[in-house]
Amino acid sequence: MNRNDYNNNFYDNGSGYDDFRGVQGNGYYSVKDTSGISMADFSRRVYSWMAAGLSITFILGFVIQNVLLADPFMLEQFLPIFIFSVILEFIMVIALGFFIYKLPSTVSLILFLVYSVLNGINIAPALMFAEADKAIWAFAATALLFGTFSIYGIVTKRDLTKLRPILLIGLIVLIVFGILGMFFRMGAMDLIISLIGIAIFVGFTAYDTQKIKKGYEYFSGDAEMLKKASINIALQLYLDFINLFLYILRLFSRNSR
Questions:
Q1: Cβ contact 247:197 at 8 Å
Q2: pLDDT in tens, 118-135
Q3: What is the pLDDT of residues 200-243, one digit of tens each?
Q4: Which residues, 6+ apart, have CB-to-CB distance to 4 below 8 Å?
Q5: Residue-wise over 15-26: b if at least 16 C-beta within 10 A, else e?
Q6: Taking the C-alpha atoms of 61, 233, 140 and 179 in order, what is their torsion angle to the nearest 10 degrees?
Q7: What ranges do the domains of the chain cover?
Q8: CA torsion sign, 70 to 73 to 74 to 79?
Q9: What angle do CA 59, 144, 193 make, to 5 degrees?
Q10: To 5 degrees, how large is the angle CA 115–CA 78–CA 80?
């Protein structure tokens, strides 16, 4: 299954997500908090929302995969659902990218969880066409890489915003090759694309993890905006994990052919 990384369009949509400029909040605050939410609480929220989204996506994806494998005739009935979910997913990620800070935090969270359901539907074919052991190993490798670079994003003193132009260029390259892959056989280029995809999304993982501290500092003092920021950052880290998984699965599946 070819999957373009359209779901990362919000990285450059002008909403100020990389440094929180342009968001209607209380301005920039020091680390001293007046909202009753500590940095540790904020971080836990981010990773809790991310984990909830990933759980929904992978549980649903594996359930649908097993149903399709058990009854191949279900594939024909599943196709319209898959197409509809892809279109709706594309619309939702753009809407979330632009409006997540303008919506009530409860609405943003519900939309994020609905998006996780749609992604579960959309990754089912990729899981179906991959061997079960390859999918498990790909998930384990993704968790290891994601955890490693997320920790790096937390502990490093380097400003990772300098990586943004490089990551965006890499993302554009992936999208272009993803579109070309729909019409042409990529052959040996498929290996290179998979490796580039993995490199790009481990970079995004570290880059987005660093936003946890920046988001907390920016919105400290405004409990509602902190909730919205935690959902927004969780969504970005969720997408990093999903895309990293898909490129690792693609690499593992290629090596098993």
A1: yes
A2: 999 999 888 888 877 888
A3: 999 999 999 999 998 898 888 788 899 999 999 999 999 999 99
A4: 174, 175, 178, 179
A5: bebbebeebebe
A6: 60
A7: 37-255
A8: positive
A9: 85
A10: 75
